[in-house]
Amino acid sequence: MQQLINTALGGLTQGMVFAAFALALVLIWRSTRIVNFAQAPMAMVTTFVALVVIEQGYSYWLAFAAALLSGLLLGAFLERVVVRPVEGKSEINAVILTLALFIVLHAGAAVVFGNSYRSFPAPFGIRGFEVGDRTIALTGFGVFRIVSVLVVMALLVALFRYTDLGLRMRAAAFNPEVARLLGVRVGRMMTIGWALASVVGSLAGLLIAGGNLVHPGYMDSVVVYGFVAAVLGGLDSPLGAVVGGLVLGLSLAFVSGYVGGQLVALAALLILMVVLTLRPGGLFSATAERRV
Amino acid sequence: MRRLHLPSSTLARHLLGAALGLVVVILVLQGVSDFRRFQLAEMAYLGIAVGGLTVLTGLNGQLSLGHGALMAFGAYTAALLLPDREASTPLPLVVLAAVAVTLVVGAAVGIAAARLHGPYLAGATLALAVAVPGIALYFKETLGGEQGLRIVMPDRPGWAEEATFFVTGQELTTAGWVAFLSWSTLILTYFLLANLSRSRVGRRWRAVRDDEVSAQLAGIDLGRARVSAFMVSAAAAGAAGAMLGLAVRLAAPSSFTLTISLTLVAAIVLGGLGSLTGALLGAALLTFLPQVVTQVGTANGLSDIQAAELAPLVYGLVMVAVILLAPAGLFGTVHQAVVRRRLQRRATAAAAAGGPHPTTPDSPDAIGTDDTTTTEGVPR
């Protein structure tokens, strides 16, 4: 019973991070119809920025802010300079381009920051809370993970639902031609979409790094889990991404806890295959099924 | 089928090319050191995998990020068949078994992948690339876990030793033998792939890539075309994996990480999608560029580990540049320029003779629409 609860709690905290990462993928997919496979190394780079700030002796929170800000700038820069020329062109070019960015950021980070494992601090305790005389698998940092992803979700919902900017972004993503006729600066909206996504990705990177070791490849498998989570939700729905992240986090925690940690990635592959075969539009596709 | 639908001259040309290739390979392998032979073996097994991926992506328009993982199936099959000196299975049988196993895996993945497009297919095969090394770790007893399985090369056959000594007066070294095996496999694979892409099967693959709806209207089963392309390409990856295993004498999860899968994609982009010559060029770049770049790096004061990362950095940057500036790839762009010039010359000649102007081909919008096997002098 205790193991069951602990596995579930672990899966929930892990799932929240997948959710954040999936959210970043969904934001970019919605604004530019590109799956950003470079999301993981982008988040890794911003985490290293935070690590550098911390190693200079500044506080965790300053590093946190620096990572998010560098994520904002990196996302906007990449969209504006590198991705813009392939937007709206053939899918395969966009996929290959984000993969190329993956390789560049990865290798670039290894050249600049080195290829070794370095420990990354956590702002809150990483020891389990004690309930009665038992220790459960929920930590202070785990609570921070859950809360911060929920806050980001709420902010995004507020942005898209209640602000003028959010409305324009939705219009640009929904129908660029018409939006342009109505005076929306579509290109700028796409840049903002990438920048926002990159901030959310950076947050996911920080949340994974906290209390763990980081190196240039530490986010690589997360791009797969984030993608699976986003596909579970249908790639189009932010809420779906979060639910997909939680479902995936829980499933993988149970696979890891009861079958074997080595098979987690295989389980993710199987889940992805089953979902794509049964519901190609994702679990949350309200509209007619999209051809994938 | 090949004979029915192809002029025999194509087959004859490919046969001639293969024979010439074999002669060149033997001559080159003669004249180089064992270190270079090892490098050439590496180029050959990468070339086999890249060739398979070229067929899949260039001809059929499916992008796979999991071909490195498919190579693992070939290598582990070889390792299980060659555990020690006593149990030495004949090498052709080992390679065939590796191909067969990967073919089955490729069919399973291909069936699931046939319904997916662009980013979905990329994501699913990416998941494959990340998942496969875990299998080897989980089944530690049979597959050796992190350490992997050792591969014991069977003894070199007497005829090879004698032939080498007869032709060159030198002993046949292990590196030379492995390089010879890898290159023979590469030539055989490319011969088969080249013929296949010229056959009815290859035309169907291209039709599906270029326009699904028209292909369907023409009576082509889209799913079947996609799955068969994936299977053929996976089989090549399996042969490549077996050769990798023989060359490094080990099948271990660390050889088949996401990195090698992405590297293969880099090779097809650098070489130029859709052409086997480009694939070989890409494999050569993958093999020989790192050494050069790493030396430049260490000469400029980088540590060894940092310098080792310069090569992927260069691949990545060149990939970005190719996608943005020359979507047909390096080889494809050169080839296009040659074709265009030839057409221009023909147009001037036609204008001088008062004939109609042939149109010049447009540069393709999408990578993969360049197809050097169909554009030989004829604009599509």
UniProtKB/TrEMBL annotation, chain A:
<dbReference type="InterPro" id="IPR001851">
    <property type="entry name" value="ABC_transp_permease"/>
</dbReference>
<keyword id="KW-0029">Amino-acid transport</keyword>
<keyword id="KW-0813">Transport</keyword>
<dbReference type="GO" id="GO:0005886">
    <property type="term" value="C:plasma membrane"/>
</dbReference>
<dbReference type="GO" id="GO:0006865">
    <property type="term" value="P:amino acid transport"/>
</dbReference>
<feature type="transmembrane region" description="Helical">
    <location>
        <begin position="94"/>
        <end position="116"/>
    </location>
</feature>
<dbReference type="Pfam" id="PF02653">
    <property type="entry name" value="BPD_transp_2"/>
</dbReference>
<keyword id="KW-1133">Transmembrane helix</keyword>
<feature type="transmembrane region" description="Helical">
    <location>
        <begin position="36"/>
        <end position="54"/>
    </location>
</feature>
<protein>
    <submittedName>
        <fullName>Branched-chain amino acid ABC transporter permease</fullName>
    </submittedName>
</protein>
<keyword id="KW-0812">Transmembrane</keyword>
<dbReference type="GO" id="GO:0022857">
    <property type="term" value="F:transmembrane transporter activity"/>
</dbReference>
<keyword id="KW-0472">Membrane</keyword>
<feature type="transmembrane region" description="Helical">
    <location>
        <begin position="60"/>
        <end position="82"/>
    </location>
</feature>
<keyword id="KW-1003">Cell membrane</keyword>
<feature type="transmembrane region" description="Helical">
    <location>
        <begin position="136"/>
        <end position="160"/>
    </location>
</feature>
<feature type="transmembrane region" description="Helical">
    <location>
        <begin position="12"/>
        <end position="29"/>
    </location>
</feature>
<feature type="transmembrane region" description="Helical">
    <location>
        <begin position="189"/>
        <end position="209"/>
    </location>
</feature>
<comment type="similarity">
    <text>Belongs to the binding-protein-dependent transport system permease family. LivHM subfamily.</text>
</comment>
<dbReference type="InterPro" id="IPR052157">
    <property type="entry name" value="BCAA_transport_permease"/>
</dbReference>
From TrEMBL, chain B:
<dbReference type="InterPro" id="IPR001851">
    <property type="entry name" value="ABC_transp_permease"/>
</dbReference>
<feature type="transmembrane region" description="Helical">
    <location>
        <begin position="264"/>
        <end position="289"/>
    </location>
</feature>
<feature type="transmembrane region" description="Helical">
    <location>
        <begin position="229"/>
        <end position="252"/>
    </location>
</feature>
<keyword id="KW-1003">Cell membrane</keyword>
<dbReference type="Pfam" id="PF02653">
    <property type="entry name" value="BPD_transp_2"/>
</dbReference>
<feature type="transmembrane region" description="Helical">
    <location>
        <begin position="38"/>
        <end position="56"/>
    </location>
</feature>
<keyword id="KW-1133">Transmembrane helix</keyword>
<feature type="transmembrane region" description="Helical">
    <location>
        <begin position="120"/>
        <end position="139"/>
    </location>
</feature>
<feature type="transmembrane region" description="Helical">
    <location>
        <begin position="310"/>
        <end position="332"/>
    </location>
</feature>
<protein>
    <submittedName>
        <fullName>Branched-chain amino acid ABC transporter permease</fullName>
    </submittedName>
</protein>
<keyword id="KW-0472">Membrane</keyword>
<feature type="region of interest" description="Disordered">
    <location>
        <begin position="349"/>
        <end position="380"/>
    </location>
</feature>
<dbReference type="InterPro" id="IPR043428">
    <property type="entry name" value="LivM-like"/>
</dbReference>
<dbReference type="GO" id="GO:0015658">
    <property type="term" value="F:branched-chain amino acid transmembrane transporter activity"/>
</dbReference>
<feature type="compositionally biased region" description="Polar residues">
    <location>
        <begin position="370"/>
        <end position="380"/>
    </location>
</feature>
<dbReference type="GO" id="GO:0005886">
    <property type="term" value="C:plasma membrane"/>
</dbReference>
<keyword id="KW-0812">Transmembrane</keyword>
<feature type="transmembrane region" description="Helical">
    <location>
        <begin position="94"/>
        <end position="113"/>
    </location>
</feature>
<feature type="transmembrane region" description="Helical">
    <location>
        <begin position="175"/>
        <end position="196"/>
    </location>
</feature>
<feature type="transmembrane region" description="Helical">
    <location>
        <begin position="12"/>
        <end position="32"/>
    </location>
</feature>
